[in-house]
Amino acid sequence: MNILVLFSHKWKGGRAGGAETYTIELAKGLASRGHRIVLVTDTIKAPNIGRIENDLVAHYDTSFQTINPFRQMNRLKEIVSRHGADIVHAQHRTAGYYAEFLWRRRQVPYVVTVHDPWHATPFKKSHGKVFRRLIAVSDFLKQLLITRFHVPPERIRTIRNGIDPSRFEGIAPDDAARFRSAFSVGADEIVLSQISRISKVKGQLDLLHALRLLPPDLPYRCLIVGEGKERARLERLAESFGLIRKVTFCGYQSNIPVVLAASDLMLLPSHREGLPLSIVEAMLSHVPVIAASTAGVPEIITHGQDGFLFQAGDIPTLASLIEQMVRDTNLRQQLAQAGHRTAIERFLVGRMIDETEAYYQRILEESG
Question: For the chain, where do the domains classified as CATH 3.40.50.2000 start and end?
Answer without folding.
Answer: 2-162+348-366, 166-346
